[in-house]
Every structure is written in structure tokens, then in C-alpha cells.
Design brief:
Layout: H1 7-34, H2 40-48, H3 66-79, H4 81-94, H5 96-101, H6 104-115, E1 121-124, E2 140-144, E3 147-158, E4 165-171, E5 181-187, E6 193-197, E7 208-219, H7 231-266, E8 268-269, E9 272-273, H8 278-307, H9 312-337, H10 348-357, H11 365-375
Parallel strand pairs: 1-4
Antiparallel strand pairs: 2-3, 3-7, 4-5, 6-7, 8-9
Helix pairs in contact: 1-3, 3-4, 3-7, 4-7, 7-8, 7-9, 7-10, 8-9, 9-10, 9-11
The protein binds flavin-adenine dinucleotide (FAD).
Flavin-adenine dinucleotide binds at residues 89, 93, 122-126, 130-132, 156-158, 200, 203, 208, 357, 360-364, 366-367, 370.
Length: 378
């Protein structure tokens, strides 16, 4: 395989890196302290074309590929995973199903304004009774005259406390089969939809909510694509997004290594920089080797998405390796920093807390292993 980044990819990386360092980095500390996402960033991302990187120009996007999408994620996550998580929940999880399966009217009302950052999206799949087992979903949408009545709860939904609409999964038939699950685009605020913001240890500057749906009426034109049984759209979206969030993990791991290198050069113990101690140098070497391996796996996964050949087991391997790498590397970064690693003045504690979110979100590491094992035929 002859893989290299194109000059366009390099240009995108440069643009996003400049934006993230100049415009996002100064906001991180305060946003994390008050656990609130600075909403105006969505408009700015819209102006920069960063919300539609991966969508065709004909649909209002920038027309780039999955590799470019991963570059954007990696660069945003290097500066702040919480901001990158909100980007991902909007730009991929919220908008992708509408782009893929929405009616022209749904695209005009939700997808296009979403690309400009005028309307913020969330994706509501997980429920209090289980996030790993999608098919046991309890939220129900009952057909009534002119629309549906939705009852149920959704848990850990990124962006929901600030979202203008949710792409929400509900059961449209009683039996526990996957084709009984459908997607709805639910505008907010909506009588009957109550969103409570959750307190979190990780990605604090990304807003996450618990949603109660109490007899929520949505008209027929809110059923995604105008037809029931859109579970395959969810599966396709999650498959592709596993490669995407792996790029987020790569960005976090790179940030942890960069902070550790800088600390290991500056911190003097016994009259020498701690990087000269072999124990520290070996940790840094392991971190760099892990990151190199994750890097090639992530961009191989992105290339497979672009070729249309990605499969569940491959996406699971990419996500498993990259997320576990981010956790390992950020933990090593804390150890290298000693006591400073526990202080908020340094970024490595935050990166580690944020990395832990990604061995859970988008399918836990155990679920990724199940998918990989299934691919092995067991
Ligand atoms: C910060 C954050 C943001 C999130 N954002 C969103 C969002 O925007 N939209 C959304 O829909 N969801 C979101 N989620 C939910 C996330 O996808 C779920 O938390 C995740 O899928 C795990 O589900 P659970 O928390 O219910 O854990 P559970 O399913 O209860 O799992 C608990 C434990 O059991 C293990 N386990 C479960 N089933 C199996 C099995 N079959 N084999 C082996 N082990 C198993 C799990 O690996 C885990 O260790 C978010 C989560 C977090 C933490």
C-alpha cells in the first residue's frame, strides 16, 4: 500500500492546528472549570468549514475524505478533547444520519444549518438500562394520528443540554428485533423533553445530559427518511465513527507525549533533566512507539472507510488500540510529571480523565473485543 498524506491533507492539518492553538487553547481552562461548552465555537467552526469536512460539496460540505476528518479530530483533540467530543457528537453523530438517510426537507431544516453551526445537534441512542446493548432499547415511539408519541429516557447524551435538535432512536415496534428501531429528528425545546445536565470527571467542557421523554409528540415529518426501521443507519454511523474517535484518541496521546517531553527536558532532579534517567526515557520511548502504531492503524482505518471496505472487526481494532493507547500514554505522562501530573496547571491529568471516556463511549473496549472475536468466527 502506498499511503501518504496529500498536500491538501497537510494544509487542513495546518489550518486546524493554527485555529486550535490560537482560538481554542485560551478557552480550555475556564470552560473546564465551569463545565460549559463555549457555544459560539460552533459558529466559528461553521465559518471555517470544519463541521462539514467530510460531506460532499453538493450537500454543502467541504468535500474531503475520512482521512481529512481524522486529521481535524486529531488536531482538535490535541488541544481539548471536550471540545472535540462536542464537535464529533454534532458533526458526525448528529448530522451524518440526516445526510445519509434524511428527506430533502430534513436536510434543509437540520443538516444545512448544522453545517453552518447555526443549529447544534446531539445523537440520543444510549439509555439508563444499557448503552452496550442497543437492541434492548426501551424508548418507544407509538404511531398516532399525524405523527408519533415518544416515551422513554436517554442517558449520557453529548451536547443535549445545549442542542437545538436531537437525532433520537426509539422502538417503533414491540419485538426485540433491530428493524423495530427507528430514528427521529426532534427539535428542541419541545414540551415533554426534559434535559438534565450531568456532572462529569472527563470531557468536562463538553455538555452531557440525561433526557426524559414524556409523551412527546413529533409530527410524521420528524421520522428520519420518512420510513421506520433505520437501525442499519445507526450501525453504519457507529462503524465509521469508531475510526473517527480513534483519531481523537491519537490526538490526546500526542498531547500527553508532547507535555511529557517538555517536562522531562525542563524538570531537574539531582542536577539533571529527568529525561536523562533511563526509566523516564524508556517511558517516553514506549509512548512514542505506541503512538506510532496507533497513528498508522487510525489512518489505515480512515483509508478503508474511504475505499468503502471498512468492516466491523477492523473498525473495532482501530478504536480499541487507539483508545487504550491514549489511556496508557496519558497515565505514563502523569507518572513522568510526578506531583505536577496531579495539578490542574498541567494538562496531563485532564488528558487522562478524557482518555478514559473513550474506552467507554462509542462502545466499550469489551464490546470492541466482542466484535473482533466475532470477526475471528468465534
Ligand atoms: C461522556 C460520555 C458521553 C457519551 N455520549 C453519548 C452520546 O452522545 N450519545 C449516546 O447515545 N451515548 C453516549 N454515551 C454513552 C456510551 O456510548 C455508553 O456509556 C457506552 O456505550 C456504555 O454503555 P453503559 O454506560 O450503559 O455501560 P453498560 O452497557 O452498562 O456496560 C457496563 C460494563 O459491562 C460491560 N459489558 C456490557 N455488555 C457486555 C458484553 N456483551 N460483553 C462484555 N462486556 C459487556 C461493558 O464493557 C462495561 O464494562 C456517552 C458516554 C459518556 C461516558
Amino acid at each position: 500500500m502506498d499511503f501518504r498524506f496529500s498536500p491538501e491533507h497537510d494544509q487542513i492539518r495546518e489550518t486546524v492546528r493554527r485555529h486550535a492553538e490560537a482560538e481554542l487553547a485560551p478557552l480550555v481552562r475556564a470552560a473546564e472549570e465551569i463545565e460549559s461548552f463555549p457555544r459560539h465555537i460552533f459558529r466559528r467552526w461553521g465559518e471555517l468549514g470544519l463541521l462539514g469536512v467530510r460531506y460532499p460539496e453538493a450537500d454543502g460540505g467541504a468535500g474531503f475524505d475520512k482521512i481529512a476528518d481524522c486529521i481535524v479530530r486529531e488536531e482538535l483533540s490535541r488541544v481539548c478533547q471536550a471540545f472535540a467530543s462536542s464537535w464529533s457528537a454534532h458533526s458526525h453523530l448528529g448530522l451524518w444520519p440526516i445526510w445519509r438517510a434524511g428527506t430533502p426537507d430534513q436536510k434543509a431544516r437540520f443538516f444545512r444549518p448544522g453545517l453552518k453551526g447555526e443549529r447544534v445537534a446531539g445523537f440520543a441512542l444510549s439509555e439508563p438500562d444499557g448503552g452496550s446493548d442497543i437492541r434492548s432499547m426501551r424508548t418507544k415511539a407509538e404511531k398516532v394520528d399525524g405523527g408519533y408519541r415518544i416515551n422513554g429516557s436517554k442517558l449520557y447524551i453529548t451536547n443535549s443540554p445545549m442542542a437545538d435538535f436531537l437525532v433520537l432512536a426509539a422502538r417503533t415496534r414491540a419485538e426485540l428485533t433491530s428493524d423495530a428501531i427507528s430514528l427521529f429528528v426532534v427539535g428542541l425545546p419541545n414540551p415533554g423533553v426534559i434535559v438534565s445536565k450531568l456532572d462529569k470527571e472527563g470531557i468536562r467542557a463538553s455538555e452531557t445530559g440525561l433526557i426524559h421523554l414524556d409523551d412527546v409528540f413529533v409530527p410524521d415529518d420528524c421520522l428520519l427518511g420518512g420510513s421506520e426501521g433505520t437501525y442499519p443507519v445507526i450501525l453504519d454511523s457507529l462503524l465509521e465513527n469508531r475510526v473517527g474517535v480513534a483519531a481523537n484518541c491519537l490526538g490526546m496521546a500526542r498531547a500527553a507525549l508532547a507535555a511529557s517531553l517538555s517536562y522531562a527536558r525542563d524538570r531537574q532532579v539531582r542536577g539533571q533533566p529527568i529525561g536523562r534517567f533511563q526509566a523516564i526515557a524508556h517511558k517516553l520511548a514506549d509512548m512514542a512507539a505506541d503512538i506510532e502504531a496507533a497513528n498508522w492503524l487510525v489512518y489505515y482505518g480512515a483509508w478503508r472507510v474511504d475505499q468503502g471496505t471498512i468492516d466491523a472487526a477492523t473498525a473495532a481494532k482501530v478504536k480499541l488500540i487507539a483508545s487504550e493507547t491514549a489511556v496508557r500514554v496519558s497515565e505514563a505522562a502523569i507518572r513522568i510529571h510526578g506531583g505536577a501530573g496531579i495539578m490542574r496547571e498541567y494538562p496531563v491529568g485532564r488528558i487522562h480523565r478524557d482518555a478514559l471516556v473513550y474506552v467507554i463511549g462509542e462502545g466499550t473496549s469489551e464490546i470492541q473485543r466482542n466484535l473482533i472475536a466475532r470477526g475471528l468466527g468465534i
